Amino acid sequence: MSIFFLIVFFIISVIYTRKVYFPLFMASILSVSTDINYISVIVLFFVVLFGFLNRLIYFNRKSFLFFLLSFFVMVFIIFLGIKNGGHIYNAVGKSLKIFIILFLFFISYKDGFISFYDIRKNIRVFYLITFISILVLYNAGYYNDQGIILERVSGFLYDPNYLSLFCFIFILYLSYFGKLLGIKYKKDILCLLLIILLCQSWSMFIFVFIYYLIGYKRLCDFGKLINPYFSIIIVFFIYFSLYGLDKIVAYQDWSESHLSLKLNSLIFRLNAMLDGFSVITTNSDILLYGMGSGRSLEITDRVFHNLYFQQLFDHGIVYYLVFSLLLWYLCKHKIFDKVGMVHVVIFFLALNNIVFDNFYSFIFPFSIFIFLSTKERTNTLLNSMRII
């Protein structure tokens, strides 16, 4: 069913916007969070390559050199994990993801690459198809994730948390550019908030509350301050939190209490991280270069659902430092000051990565992409955007 709704989303978006590339790009990003995610990375690779070959996106010389340097350093470290038992096909898969992510970070965009009005049309098609898919799939008994009253819904994606995160990013996007351009957007926001409510994602409830309570300006200032160092701060926090901690016993009344169910989810993740922590702290090679992509399933029967610890476990502290340096550079770049909401977006995405992975699921680079590629991103049009 995911394929069907993705195709419908793409077709309607093309008809509505009269453009092909961005609907195709957005559909390929969404496909990573569906049941066909095993082929979606390859599809996304060719979509990005298509944009490059058609000169919709491009590199300048300096950014291309930075892209190649970052890519080869990170891939080299990823393949070092093979000596600790990592599998080569997992290393190749992770390398392909890194290629796409870095590509999206370092490219420049053709003048007037995409308009706010076109992206808003894509967002409207997205929440329309989501509402239709919820009605169809809910009545078909597709959703089985227990909620407070009703089952949690995920639209045509496979996880309610990812659907609600997309909706939250779109709320930030519409809020920023809608205000900048003096466009009415409240009805769109209400539709997206309704989807978040149906998803019953507590992390998104908290994010929405924080955003509207604190406000854009203060969050932007705070994001500028903390974002460059967030990954370093969080890894120290994780280390001192796990050090000396014993496993926690799960609640037995999870079938009767929604709160116990949610707490158990956190407990299972924490216990899995404790198992992983015991592995990386008893072997210096694993601490340096990791066990290799996908190996956490062998140790704990689950992924850690924490990007920072997952990277430390999979690829070691050397890779983690390179990753942190890359994020530091991006967050410090002056182009972000021209689109202040990007600081807010990165802050929420970095926070969200504590409980989910939005980085290798491409939500992180996609979010930056739509903000920086929008031609109305400032009151005065810029000729192009360059990270480097």
UniProtKB/TrEMBL annotation:
The chain crosses the membrane at residues 36-57, 64-82, 88-109, 125-142, 162-182, 189-214, 226-245, 266-292, 312-330, 342-372. Keywords: Membrane, Transmembrane, Transmembrane helix. It comes from the Bacteria. This is Wzy. It comes from Glaesserella parasuis. The gene is funL6.
